[in-house]
Structure formats: structure tokens, C-alpha cells
Design goal:
The chain has 237 residues and is an alpha+beta fold. The protein has a single domain (58-235), classed as Cyclophilin, CATH 2.40.100.10. Helices cover 20% and strands 21% of the residues. It has helices spanning 46-51, 64-74, 98-109, 135-144, 207-214, and strands at residues 79-84, 87-93, 116-122, 126-131, 163-166, 183-186, 198-205, 229-235. It has an eight-stranded antiparallel beta barrel with strand order 1-2-7-5-6-4-3-8. Strand 1 (79-84) and strand 2 (87-93) form a beta hairpin. The longest helix is centred in the middle third of the chain and has 12 residues, at 98-109. The radius of gyration is 17 Å and the shape is globular.
Length: 237
């Protein structure tokens, strides 16, 4: 029997409510932080500056935002390629959502996404990736850190077909803080999700690959019966 990943370092995968899908989907939320990214300043502590170059630096909820604020200034890449057995999906990450862009670039450079999966797929709705039931990948999370990202939803973006957005964590989280290790790609317009989840990029090439992944056979939990692996995420520019 397949082992389903229900809890991963206190961050669990969420489902975005699909009011038009016949499959059961649920929206879950976490943590008690009230801070939103729009209210942050551009101040960075000297402690954070000194740790951005350390390989053994561990991210926490206390230091993650300051870390990514500094990381954004030093790492300006904004195009990535998700490599799968079904083909490649190229994505442009938005500069407006700098914390989420920086987080994604950081994880890609750490090779976190290698051998993760598109673990939840719903035809004509979403493909959701970045997690797995592989213990080696879960070990990577422990070495990167345990943290959440505040929502950044007032940039004028909408959950249209082709955008990439970040799900919220499942812990007691009324402010829908984002689970940084996962993401989902929209396969159609679902504006009901606007304001709840942070859109931080869009597909610029390979939507046909996303559609192909969404057509695989799944179980009742929307997990593909045959695993759909993300081989790696490459930095393009």
C-alpha cells in the first residue's frame, strides 16, 4: 500500500478548492502570524547578511524573511525550467513577489526539487508539485529549514491559466502562510483563489506538458497512480 505523505516537518500539502471539479478538494490554512509582505521594510540585520553565504545556514520562521530580503538583492535570476519525463516547463518568476521568487531560486540552487513529484493533479484545474513520500527528499527539508512565507497577494495578478502559485501550509494558519517547498500551476482561470494564495510566476513555455501531466490516471486523493517526477529545476536566467 502506498504511503501517503500526511505531515512533513509540520508543513503539509494543501488543496485549492475546485468548485467545478467532480473530485473532492479542500482548502487548509496555518500559523498565527499576521504579517503580510506588503508591510515589510527593506531593513536587513547584520546577522542575516553574514549567514547568506554559509552552506550550513538553517532557515527558521524567525530569520527566513530577512534572509530572502538580502538574497533578493544578490540573486536576480527569474527564469527556471522544470524538467520532467513528460517534457520541460519553463517559468518566469515575478520580481514583484521577490520573497517567493527568491525562495524558489534558493531551493532550485539547493537541488531541493530533484526527485520530488507532481503529487496532486486534477485535469483542467491544477498540477501541484514539490513534495513526495521519498525520505531522502524529506531529509533535504531538514537541512534547509522549517519556515513559512507570508502571503503577497496584492500585486494585481490573478489565478489565470499558466500562473504558478504557492499553497498554504495546513497547520493552524488563518492567514494562509505559504508552504515554501510546494507550488501549483493553474490549468484554467480560477479567480476564486485570488487573495488566498501567492502568485509568483507564469509558464512561458510548456503548458502542453502541464496538460499532459494533468491527464494521468490518479487515485481518489488525486495522487498519480504512476509517480510523475520532477527530475530537476534548472536556472535559465
Amino acid at each position: 500500500m502506498r504511503f501517503y505523505l500526511l505531515v512533513v516537518l509540520s508543513l503539509t500539502i494543501i488543496g485549492c478548492e475546485d468548485k467545478q471539479s467532480s473530485k473532492k478538494s479542500s482548502t487548509v490554512i496555518t500559523n498565527s502570524k499576521t504579517e503580510t509582505i506588503e508591510n515589510r521594510t527593506d531593513t536587513v540585520s547584520t546577522t542575516t547578511k553574514s549567514t547568506t553565504s554559509k552552506d550550513n545556514f538553517l532557515l527558521t520562521e524567525e530569520n527566513a524573511m530577512e534572509f530572502f530580503l538580502q538574497y533578493d538583492k544578490e540573486h536576480k535570476e527569474n527564469k527556471v525550467r522544470i524538467v520532467t519525463d513528460f517534457g520541460n516547463i519553463d517559468i518566469e518568476l515575478f520580481d514583484e513577489t521577490k520573497f517567493h521568487r527568491s525562495n524558489f531560486i534558493y531551493l532550485a540552487k539547493k537541488k531541493y526539487f530533484d526527485n520530488t513529484q507532481f503529487y496532486r493533479v486534477i485535469e483542467n484545474y491544477i498540477i501541484q508539485g514539490g513534495s513526495t513520500d521519498d525520505r531522502d527528499v524529506m531529509r533535504k527539508r531538514r537541512y534547509i529549514g522549517k519556515y513559512l512565507l507570508p502571503t503577497d497577494t496584492k500585486r494585481g495578478f490573478h489565478h489565470d491559466r499558466g500562473v504558478i502559485s504557492m499553497p498554504s501550509s495546513e497547520i493552524d494558519n488563518p492567514y494562509k502562510l505559504a508552504s515554501p517547498y510546494e507550488f501549483f500551476i493553474m490549468l484554467r482561470d480560477v479567480h476564486e483563489l485570488d487573495g488566498d494564495y501567492t502568485i509568483f510566476g507564469k509558464v512561458i513555455r510548456g503548458m502542453e506538458v502541464a496538460d499532459k501531466i494533468a491527464n494521468v490516471e490518479t487515485d481518489d486523493a488525486d495522487w498519480p497512480l504512476q509517480n510523475v517526477y520532477i527530475k530537476t529545476v534548472e536556472i535559465l536566467d
